[in-house]
Amino acid sequence: MRELTVELGERSYPIYIGQGILNDITALFDRAKLSRKSPLLVVTDSEVAPLHLERVMALLRAGGFNATSCVVPAGETSKSLSQLEGIVTSALQAGLDRSSAIVALGGGVVGDLAGFAAASFMRGIRFVQIPTTILAHDSSVGGKVAVNHPMAKNIIGAFHQPELVLFDIDLLLTLPPRQVKAGLSEVIKHGLIWDAAFTQWCDDNTEKLLSLDPEALGYALYIGCKVKSIVVSQDERENDLRAILNLGHTIGHALEAVAGYGELLHGEAISIGMVGAAKLAQQFGYSEEIHEVTKGLFLKYGLPVSIPPHLDTDSIMSAMMHDKKFKEGTMVYIIPMEIGKVEIRKDVTVEQVRQIVELLKGRG
Amino acid sequence: MRELTVELGERSYPIYIGQGILNDITALFDRAKLSRKSPLLVVTDSEVAPLHLERVMALLRAGGFNATSCVVPAGETSKSLSQLEGIVTSALQAGLDRSSAIVALGGGVVGDLAGFAAASFMRGIRFVQIPTTILAHDSSVGGKVAVNHPMAKNIIGAFHQPELVLFDIDLLLTLPPRQVKAGLSEVIKHGLIWDAAFTQWCDDNTEKLLSLDPEALGYALYIGCKVKSIVVSQDERENDLRAILNLGHTIGHALEAVAGYGELLHGEAISIGMVGAAKLAQQFGYSEEIHEVTKGLFLKYGLPVSIPPHLDTDSIMSAMMHDKKFKEGTMVYIIPMEIGKVEIRKDVTVEQVRQIVELLKGRG
What does the entry list as the binding residues for NAD(+) (chains A, B) (predicted)? Predict the structure, then answer.
């Protein structure tokens, strides 16, 4: 089992990564001093429930925890205020109190939704993440939780740190190949923004990662979580540094919105976005190699590197204008300076981004 | 103009109280460094809008602020997730960004709803309170914001401190007498929990307060806000001391829920609750005088001191069981030890509270 700590003063918490560690769930809950007296609510979705819910509930109950569960429909549409209300109904029916915790068992959607429920129920109760996707290595670290509004993604939310993150590699072995690739996109991102050696390692170990080799996957998740936790520790509330985690996300989020959430997976959308940012880096005078390496890596992982041509450029640009990354009219953009290092630029014009979007359509 | 500071480290903020100080709104916004570049959203309700909205908007625009407004229906039912979604729609349409602020112009409902919108929009933007009721002297200080769930009041919310509170006495002069009395109930509460001299002052100045004498009202609001801010400064997130602010609220909230929100005003419900707590104090061996003074004071202010007999005891008790003040099955209760001093007891049994409820029905 690998272990690392997200350093946030009194809100610090551990991340455990390893194969089969779900068996240690009650010991890890005890280490986090979760209450056995107050009810726990396990929130999961309709795809994860048949695979893992029964076992999680059995382990918790065997360990003396008073656990209830709540299942939401799988998919991004569950990140809504109405599902939030449903979780609160379950929490009230189960008798959750201020010493209770909500456990998110699932991918990013479940983590974000259940996390916001924990952040807002009784103005904030404790929260545990048990990710079941590779992508969730990203969303489960850092405390950003949210639901969507029909007009904008992740626009209603909070910063609410979990008590612990329990990442059991075994829960990832049933992931469909498309989800595996899309999840690895964020893993690769953590190399691109922070760690050139890890980027090289990702290049050298593509086959192992795509075939879910437990040792390779455990290492990649460890490094991904570690990079993210270092960044988050230095800037919990995204005042500055944390923005670098958004590499590829400006275009990526717009593509997800325009394609309709679900047509392009998040990891797919940001792989296109990261290729776009690398292209922009070239225009700002940085080495062409950044674009070559970035694009080559995503191609090797079978991830998309160009925008589906049927997506309208005006719609993509308009979706971007609603994005949270615009501050007082100025566009904030994350640009790679070299592999493993990015900068936060505030001088990127809408016109420059439009050109990149055009470039990515067909000729990315 | 009276001024006081709620001391909360980097989240400290000023409260301004005075007659006609709305005219200084842009100077006070400048002092809080609110942005003129980023749009402001003023949230108010359908009762306050015809009285004050036009003037507030005109003052803000004349001062160079980019202000938009959003009006919700008056009444407790607006403290809902669907109204929250509506405010977020307005915020997105107005182009609010991370440097924007939401301004709550209204009573407790508007403050709680708009405050939770500010707490969760983009994971938290800035927030200003302009209370238009006496009761809001309480809700506008301390950063507790929330919406209701069909099964429980204030159950979905956050701690989110405002940048400033602007309390213009002139906005209170149109309040209907029932609202005045109900608002003064929380003012009196602040005396009962913290300040015996102020309790005596309230007894001596009943006529002045009920007739909205500006000098008396300004002083009472100042003391009320001051007591609340001292308590909040010492315990922002209600781990211990802050619970004393809930004097009268355990029974009060249950009465509001059972009577249907609106039949009993909040201030009316807690005046009954405070008489109940004083009765309980007697049973715990404290002086009978507490009950006499408490009841006498509320009678003098024309506030109810007994439970309407048609409200069912079982329903009241069941509503209480859903309340947030139950921690791990134990009942937490605020009991006066003398006038101006209360204690937090954790040993109050459900049976003792039921007896008090029965006593308050007809023989309070």
Answer: 108-112, 132-133, 144, 153
**Cβ-proximal residues to B279 (8 Å cutoff; 6+ apart), any chain:** B291, B356, B359, B360, B364
Query: Cβ contacts of residue B207 below 8 Å, gap of 6+?
Result: none
The reply to whether A227 and A328 lie within a common domain is: yes
Looking at the structure, do residues A165 and A250 belong to the same domain, yes or no? no
Pair A122, A139: CB distance under 8 Å = no
A92 in B contact zone (CB under 8 Å): yes
> What's the ipTM?
0.90
Active-site residue flag, B178? no
The structure tokens 């134990």 sit at: B330
Same domain, B147 and B104: yes
pLDDT tens digit string along A111-167?
999 999 999 999 999 999 999 999 988 888 989 999 999 988 899 999 999 999 999
- Interface check for B156 against chain A (CB to CB < 8 A): the answer is yes
What are the mean pLDDT values of chain A's consecutive 10-residue runs (364 residues total)?
93 96 98 96 98 98 97 95 98 95 96 98 98 92 94 93 97 94 96 97 98 96 96 88 93 90 87 97 94 97 95 91 59 93 91 93 64
The three-class DSSP label of residue A33 is coil
Question: What are the tens digits of pLDDT across the range A303-330?
Answer: 999 999 999 999 999 888 766 555 555 6
Scanning the structure block, which residue is given the tokens 């508007």? B110
> Chain A neighbours among B 224-253 (CB < 8 Å)?
237
The length of chain B, given as a count of residues: 364
Q: Is B253 an active-site residue?
A: yes
Task: Specify the pLDDT at position B23.
Answer: 98
Please identify which residue in the block is written with the tokens 């717009």. Answer: A254
Query: Does the beta-carbon distance from B97 to A324 stay under 8 Å?
Result: yes
Domain count for chain A: 2
Flag whether B111 is marked binding: yes
Asked if B94 and B67 sit in the same domain, the reply is: yes
- The residue range of the domain holding B206 is 177-363
Same domain for A167 and A307: no
In B, which residues are within 8 Å of A97 by CB distance? 324, 326-329
Q: What is the Cα A308 distance to its own chain's centre?
A: 23
Same-domain check for residues B186 and B334 = yes
Q: What amino acid is encoded at A354 in this protein?
A: R
The reply to whether A329 touches chain B by the CB within 8 Å rule is yes
| DSSP per residue, B48-113 | TIIIIIHHHHHHHHHTT--EEEEEE-SSGGGSSHHHHHHHHHHHHHTT--TT-EEEEEESHHHHHH
Q: CB under 8 Å to B68, separation ≥6 — which residues?
A: B39, B40, B41, B42, B90, B93, B94
Is B351 annotated as belonging to a binding site?
A: no
Catalytic residue among B181, B249, B279, B295: B249
Q: Which residues of A fall within a CB distance of 8 Å from B92?
A: 149, 151-152, 155, 322
Query: Rounded to the nearest 10 degrees, what angle do helices B350-363 and B249-259 cross at?
Result: 60
Helix/strand/coil (H/E/C) assignment for every residue in B164-197: EEEEEHHHHCCCCHHHHHHHHHHHHHHHHHHCHH
Q: Are residues B135 and B188 in the same domain?
A: no
> Dmax of chain B from CA atoms?
60
For residue B328, give the CATH number of its domain.
1.20.1090.10
